[in-house]
Amino acid sequence: MSRAPASFAPLNTPRQLIKAAAKRFRSARLAYGHGTLNADDEAAWLLVHALRCPFEDLAARLDQPLPAKIVQRALQLFERRISERIPAAYLTHEAWLGEYRFYVDQRVIVPRSYIAELLQQRLQPWLRPRQSPQTILDLCTGSGCLAIVAAHSFPRARVDGADLSSPALAVARRNVREHRLAQRLQLIRSDLFNGLADRRYDLILSNPPYVRASVMRTLPAEYHREPAHALHGGGDGLDLVRRILAEAAAHLTPQGWLVLEVGHNRARMERAFPQLPFIWAETSGGDDCVLLLQKAALAEIPSAPARTPRPAVARRRRAPVR
């Protein structure tokens, strides 16, 4: 086994390791947003993975000396995080949405959708307590995370997860198996709705690519570790959003709902689709990220809505939250 990197000196307690790693992370100007939001939490999360213990057990062990092999394991994770700019979720092959754990690797983006918060509330107040959907579609399912959270939130529903990427669907299949949902959750390779024939759903969820071309070029290195096709939404970020809005009504039941995540793009959406009565959900990210529409509101949308002109000067936006 290789020796600990000199930059981390002799450290042997979780508190010392977290403090030293967080200092290095800040100096290296790492970017966060793939499960944690700051250097201290990122260091703690990687250390917990090295310890192979539940996160809630860390506080009781902060000042306990660690075996050399665990220290070495932690230091190697810290060094890779700095030198390779790999998000912690890829280093640990683990990501969480609420209480649910998912396997991830670089075939899929790291789960981080605000829609999960709405699912944990069973989409109330829009869905009444006894108005549970019987059929659900997660469009652009990626790792399968939203499809799986939906299946847990609505235990009597049948759920489809659709994605164009075969590698992503391989990851999703693993997660479906681990959550023991194979009897209720089907994965389908489909370019948006194209592979779904005439299927109809009470609820369609989607967290599609919505990052603008100008923003893609300015994203931190960590985001370029993710599949570009799962982030890039075209010139103004709305290429796939337009298709979803134009085609969703044909795949909704009469009282069905579309729940669509669009990043912090409320103003752009309202300019592009002034005729649509968007309902904007309040989430931990604000009230400009997730919209809801019922089928009746979508029925009259043109098949190819006009594209919003790109601004003359593109402003740098913060990294996308998905």
Explain what this protein looks like in three dimensions.
There is one protein chain. The chain has eleven helices and nine strands. It is globular, with a radius of gyration of 21 Å. With 322 residues, the chain is an alpha/beta fold. Strand 3, helix 6 and strand 4 form a beta-alpha-beta unit. The strands form two sheets. A seven-stranded mixed sheet has the order 5-4-3-6-7-9-8. The protein has a two-stranded antiparallel sheet with strand order 1-2.
List the main descriptive attributes of the protein structure presented here:
322 residues, alpha/beta, seven-stranded mixed beta sheet, two-stranded antiparallel ribbon, 11 helices, 9 strands, 31% helix, 14% strand, disordered C terminus
The proportion of strand residues reads: 5-15%
Give the integer mean of the pLDDT values.
Answer: 90
Shape: globular
Largest sheet: 7 strands, mixed
Taking the alpha carbons of the first and last residues, their distance comes to 38 Å
The SS-based structural class is alpha/beta
Topology, pairings included?
Layout: H1 14-27, H2 39-51, H3 68-84, H4 88-92, E1 95-97, E2 100-102, H5 115-120, E3 135-139, H6 145-153, E4 158-163, H7 166-178, E5 185-189, E6 201-206, H8 213-216, H9 239-247, E7 252-261, H10 266-272, E8 279-280, E9 290-294, H11 295-298
Helix pairs in contact: 1-2, 1-3, 2-3
Outline of the structure:
This protein is α/β, with parallel strands linked by helices and 322 residues long.
